[in-house]
Amino acid sequence: MIAARRLHVAAELDARLPEWDAEADDVLVCRAVRQETHDVKTFVFSGRSPRRHSFKPGQFITLDLIIDGRAVNRCYTIASSPTRPHLIAMTTKRFAGGVVSPWMHDRLKPGDEIRAIGPMGEFNCVDHASANGKYLLLSAGSGITPMMSMARSFHDLALETDVLFLHSARSPADIIYRAELALMARSPGFRAVPICEHDSLGESWTGLRGRVSLPMLQMVAPDLMEREVFACGPAPYMAGIRAMLVQAGFDMARYHEESFNFDDLAPVDAALAPPANWDVAKTYKVEFTKSRRTIEVPADMHVLAAARAAGMRLPSSCARGLCGTCKSKLVSGEVSMQHQGGIRQREIDAGMVLICCSKPLSDLVIDR
Ligand code: FES
């Protein structure tokens, strides 16, 4: 029995492990569920067989779930660090009235298998590394997850960085990863400063109180102007941070924020609904090579919406051209695409399109 366990551990830690590749096998197995706070849990996954997970701290992954018989895609930032590549972890807050987070909290358990796509995302501390090693990580609520991946990476690599991590929570009981942040803050070059709006039952908060303000930022980070700033949180929080930095005269080229927040978005189904007066008189043939399906798509309908209407199950999440989940190779044909930053110009130049926000201008062949 012990020998078998040793073999198991040896296989998991084999440095020559192949990378987990969602194109080849998109299954992730839930290995553990951890309660972080009263309404936040971390879900830990790995491939069916040992795999290395390679990603940039700050990137997200799209879960491709079937909930009550319906296909649902949802993006979650990876909270774990690529320095611990054998597992991948997502931390989610239970949003009452939501579809995915209550399902995850109530039903997802170790041993369950899900499908996932990714990782992807431009918001990361690799592509936007600080030239002088100074970082300011700002998060609120469950926006802490990309910052935690960055913080864990900086910590594990023991780089000569100067990281200041300001996290806003409602109360001390709502501070996610509180103990781990305190532990990391024992290392030189890492400071964690939680800010709470109010006390929690049984604990009076003695740290910084209220909401982040410019005087508060300048007090904890007198060298604010020298730092690379990353922010993630609800839209009003990030709007406030942006306004403060602009007011301070900060170089906004060194400011990076998670550009979408799925909690703030309307349901995807609404985004994928056909337009009220769509013109079915003009349609184009759209062939999906991997799915081996060809469908008719009205000229004024987005390709993804038409594929959904035809019963196809294609990866998507925001359905607004934001997240990049539906990015696909356009093998032939022409589209009119109106995205919101989910695709880079060089990807467009290479023939990629976001099918959620692309309407056909001709018959199409899409590598999906
Ligand atoms: S589903 Fe998010 S960009 Fe298309």
Task: Summarize the structure in short.
The chain has helices at 2-13, 100-107, 144-157, 178-184, 214-220, 235-248, 268-271, 303-309, 345-349; strands at residues 27-37, 40-46, 60-67, 70-77, 88-93, 113-120, 134-140, 162-169, 190-196, 208-209, 228-232, 255-257, 283-288, 293-298, 327-332, 335-337, 352-354, 358-360, 364-367.
Describe, in plain words, how this protein is organized in 3D:
With 368 residues, the protein is α/β, with parallel strands linked by helices. It has nine helices and 19 strands. The protein has helices at 2-13, 100-107, 144-157, 178-184, 214-220, 235-248, 268-271, 303-309, 345-349, and strands at residues 27-37, 40-46, 60-67, 70-77, 88-93, 113-120, 134-140, 162-169, 190-196, 208-209, 228-232, 255-257, 283-288, 293-298, 327-332, 335-337, 352-354, 358-360, 364-367. The strands form four sheets. It has a six-stranded antiparallel sheet with strand order 4-3-6-1-2-5, covered by helices on one side. Strand 1 and strand 2 form a beta hairpin. It starts with a helix and ends with a strand.
